[in-house]
Amino acid sequence: MGIATSQQLTKYYDQYRDTEITFTKDIIRALGLDPRQVYVKCNGGQWPCIINSTSFQHAKIIVGTKGGAFQALASKGGPTANLRFCFNEQEGDGIITFLVSSRVGEIRPYMNSKDLVIVTLQFTARPPDDLIEICGRLLEANANAIRRREERIPINDDSKRKLNLVKEECNVIVQSVPRHCVVRDISFSGARIILIGLSQYLAGKEAILRLEFDEPAEILSIKGTVVSADLIPGRKDICIASLKFDESSLPLSFKMHLNTYLTSVRKIQLSASEQIAQQKEAQAEQIAAKANQQEKAEPESKEAPQPAAPQPTEPQAPEVQA
Length: 322
Known about the structure:
Layout: H1 6-15, E1 21-22, H2 25-31, E2 39-42, E3 45-48, E4 50-54, E5 58-64, H3 68-73, E6 80-88, E7 95-109, E8 116-123, H4 129-147, E9 153-154, H5 157-163, E10 169-174, E11 177-186, E12 190-196, E13 206-213, E14 218-231, E15 238-245, H6 252-297
Antiparallel strand pairs: 1-4, 2-3, 2-6, 4-5, 5-8, 6-7, 7-8, 9-11, 10-11, 10-13, 11-12, 12-15, 13-14, 14-15
Helix pairs in contact: 1-4, 4-6
């Protein structure tokens, strides 16, 4: 798991505060949740439980009505409880565990069962950053799978590294027949591949693209349809095919790999924009400082105006006495 900045964590928390994640098998695998290590602590006891869903405000767990957990959680006054999460690190063999403090809220039967209840635990404070980051990345990937579904990622050494894609060479199964292919580009909605075959026998056929990823190590099978296939100029046996994925069945791990690439590229673009803005600001400051220096170099006082020359007067005649 990457390290998110405090700004990114705040963004996740503000945007997805009330969004609830239901822990299906696909989500459990994508997040690396270890259901066997999830516990609820209450009134001095600790019991394993099944976590049904979570948001950044509350979690819902399933417990049996005949166990000690139900007796503790159902006590009067809405007791406090701590929910223990456990995730496997996708980039190593370690685990991430933390407790979320909460208070017992609603308790109701689970699926009309008499033996199971679903308990809502209202978080009493903002949950730990680990939960915000793990769930936030998943929610962001789902959002970008819709918002940026057509954004193509060309496959090269740099994009493979950011995608954690092992190699561009892979297999595509067309009508139950596996074929070797090379991925040219990929997106949430489809991919372009190069493979051996006649274009007229590929277009319109159902296909499954199998891609190998690292961190975690897995091979993902992505269902789709060959919407078009064109021969490569100069070759009669090799064509380039465009696949349209069945977006309703896209593996969550695939979405998260693509989202990691897109967000990393956006961070680089934003960083470059900030550098350009800083350079322009520095240039403007230099120009202003130079102008100030030029003004100080000029004489501060101007020459005072010279007084006007006195006008000549006519000589007066001497006074004559009688």
